[in-house]
Automatic annotation (TrEMBL):
Name recorded for this polypeptide: NDP-hexose 4-ketoreductase
Ranges for domain NAD-dependent epimerase/dehydratase: 3-224
Pfam families named among the record's database cross-references: Epimerase
Family annotation (InterPro entries): Epimerase_deHydtase, NAD(P)-bd_dom_sf
SUPFAM superfamilies: NAD(P)-binding Rossmann-fold domains
PANTHER family: DTDP-D-GLUCOSE 4,6-DEHYDRATASE-RELATED
Entry similarity comment: Belongs to the NAD(P)-dependent epimerase/dehydratase family.
Length: 307
């Protein structure tokens, strides 16, 4: 089975690629802009005809698109998150129309929901900003493509390799910088929002199950922890994992998205029914693994827990 992965060098892409490579009789090819990639493509810039030629040479049985931008201006977000999936689908219709496409979407596509609600895949999509809007545009392109495709709408992923552009990775970096100083202060924004955190390894497992599922899948499946936790819990748990003895100060304000979307939680029933998937890791485990990978080497005396 030939499996092509786009965005394999990103946070989730690395976890997905590692899982796919463990499949028996699978040949995993990496696609991207780097010359080191097996297939050279640029989702944000290549014309579909150029992309189709590269994809045809790889002859994939399945394609997993982990590529995406979480930050940057609206143009950058649109090029990668909206234009990229649309161009990929157009190329696949020419080059590999029988290949299964697994695309990583985002729970940010739903936008604001009422407190206490778990949103299903049929819930209205009202993204609160350019990121969610461009991810939704990518989802629409995939689900309307006519391909054998599924969008995995991912909650807030946590785990080893989390980038500093997101809160878990940024807090881990601040904790590493603070070290053992009991007088250190972590200055953060408002942490009262609730989010549905999901382990990056669990996301990767869902992607593998989607690639290998024998029957057609629903167009969209929620992949989350299935519960909403205060962001404050995440910061406190990560600080505990790091043995942080200083002070955590909430300066108020926070991100604009947190202010607009105070509650986010996904109903993961459909993924359980379609894939036999459910999250296997608690948030505390995910944060311990994140810290084990992020802490300064001189403080890393013990082994990293196996995942």
């Amino acid at each position: 089975m030939h499996i092509l992965v786009l965005g394999a060098t990103g946070f989730l892409g690395r976890h997905v690629t590692e899982r796919l490579r463990a499949l028996p009789d699978a040949r995993v090819l990496l696609a991207g802009r780097s010359r080191a990639a097996d297939v050279t493509v640029d989702l944000a810039a290549d014309r579909p005809q150029e992309m189709a030629a590269a994809l045809a040479e790889a002859a994939p049985d399945a394609v997993v698109n982990c590529a995406g931008a979480t930050g940057g201006d609206a143009v950058t977000l649109a090029e990668v998150n909206a234009r990229g999936p649309a161009a990929l689908c157009a190329a696949l219709r020419t080059a590999a129309p029988g290949a299964r496409l697994v695309h990583l979407g985002s729970a940010a596509e739903y936008g604001p929901t009422g407190p206490g609600l778990r949103v299903t895949e049929s819930a209205p999509t009202r993204p609160a900003g350019p990121y969610g809007a461009t991810k939704l545009a990518g989802t629409v392109a995939v689900t309307a493509s006519g391909l054998d495709a599924v969008v995995l709408r991912v909650g807030n992923p946590v785990g080893p390799g989390a980038p500093a552009t997101g809160l878990p990775g940024r807090v881990a970096a601040l904790l590493a910088e603070a070290g053992d100083d009991p007088g250190a202060t972590l200055r953060l924004g408002d942490l009262s929002a609730h989010r549905d955190f999901v382990d990056a390894g669990d996301v990767a497992r869902a992607a593998v199950l989607a690639v290998t599922a024998a029957r057609p899948l629903p167009p969209v499946l929620n992949i989350g922890g299935g519960d909403a936790r205060p962001v404050r819990d995440l910061v406190r748990c990560l600080a505990d994992a790091a043995g942080f003895r200083g002070r955590i100060a909430e300066a108020g304000g926070g991100s604009a998205r947190s202010a607009r979307v105070s509650w986010q939680c996904s109903d993961i029933t459909a993924a359980r029914e379609a894939l036999g998937w459910s999250p296997a890791h608690r948030l505390e485990e995910s944060l311990a693994a994140l810290w084990a990978a992020a802490r300064p080497r001189e403080r890393a005396g013990e082994e990293v827990p196996a995942r």
